[in-house]
Structure formats: structure tokens, C-alpha cells
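Final report, results section. Input specification for complex C-07:
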Amino acid sequence: MKSNDMGLIVKTMARTTIPLIGIFGVYIVSHGHLTPGGGFQGGATIAGAGVLLLLAFGLSEMRKRYNHKVYSVLESIGGLTFLGAAMLGFSVAFFYNTLWHNGPVLNGQPGTLLSAGYLPIMNLAVGLKVFAGLVSALAAIAAYRRWKE
Amino acid sequence: MRRSLAFLSLLFILGVLLYVANPDYGLKFGLGGDDWKNMRYTDDYYITHGVNETGGTNIVTDIVFDYRGYDTLGEATVLFTAIAGAVALMRPWRGDEDEE
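Structure output:
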């Protein structure tokens, strides 16, 4: 019971697939206003990479890489960025998409990456929030006290 | 006695829901043509004006983050509260450290 990680094959495969899962999740989040998906789905995908890290390398490796203060701050930053993007057009209304109607950036042709006003910002914020929240909840459950025999 | 009463009320609710879901009396499925214009005019508005008004080509994202942003804000709050509650309940108990 000393080492709670998986075998060599699983660890090698996890080493190659964790970056791929992360890149795919970031793709889903950043193209949320163009293709299916978005902040919640992409954040859950990136959190899947964290699940794979924990399962393949075990709790001891996760303890080294995971700092719960950093992750709680990341989740708060995600929520506050969401609120800040919602308040950008506060002179007209809450959740007024002022970046799209008369903003300096993110007002390109619909269908390009730099379009849709605050939607990419909100997608990134929600993706960060979901990723940090799911990983911290998973780490808390994994580090829960052992069963009493 | 109480369990059978609860089962009977569940059966009653199921019967009412089946009645409501019957296309002859209540909900209709697979709308098209005039039914679409009459009963799904909000969806029609979103599909027609979504790209011009918000700029995103993904209509679901347009609705979730722009038209109905309060809903997403509440959803994010629910997620935040759930994570905070789970992490707070999973903290080590007082005296767990003695045994390890």
C-alpha cells in the first residue's frame, strides 16, 4: 500500500495523453463562441486531465503538484472575471455586450476567433473556474481520511 | 400503509404526466411549420437575430452568456458553492492526524 500509482505502461500513456487532453480542452474553451462546447464543457475536459494525473501517478505525486490555495484563488479569479465581463457595459445594462456593439477589441467578423464581444472572455473565465473547482474537489476527495479496517 | 400511499401518489403523478405528454391533449413533439412559428417564436428569434446581436456563431453560447447571462451567473454560483461545500466537508477531522 506504499505506492498507490499505476504501472509503467499506464504512466507512460498518461504522460503523453495528459497534454493532448489539456490542449483539446483549451481548444473547446477558446472556440466556445464558434463551435459546440464552451466554458463548462471545456473546463470539465481539462479537469479530466487532472483526474488522469491523479489516477495514473497516485496521490503522492498529486500532493506535490497541487496547492489548494492556488486553485481556490484561480476559481475566484474565474468568477470575478465573469462578473467583470458582465459589468463592462454597465452604463447601458448588466450583461450588455458593449465590446461587440462598440468595443475596441473582439468585434471582428462573426465566425472569426476575435469576435463576439465578451463571449470569449466569459468562456475562458468559466473554463478556468470549472477546471479549478473540479480539480480541487477531486483532490479533497482523494486526500480524504483512509477507511478504518 | 404509508408506503403504499406514497406508491399510489407516485402512480397518480405518473398518470397525470403521461396525460399531459399526450400529443392529443397537451405537449406536442417534433414541431414544424406553423406550430414552430406559434409555439417556438423565441427560438425563432434567437436563431434569426443571434449572430447579428451578439456576434457569436454558436447560438447556444449566445443565449447562455448574452441573452440569459444571469442564468449562467447563477449556475457558476451553484458550482462555486458546491465545490466550497465539498472541500469544507472533506477536511480532516480533529484527531485524524494522531493515527497516521
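Chain B has five helices and no strands. Chain B has a mean pLDDT of 85. This concludes the modelling results for the funded period.
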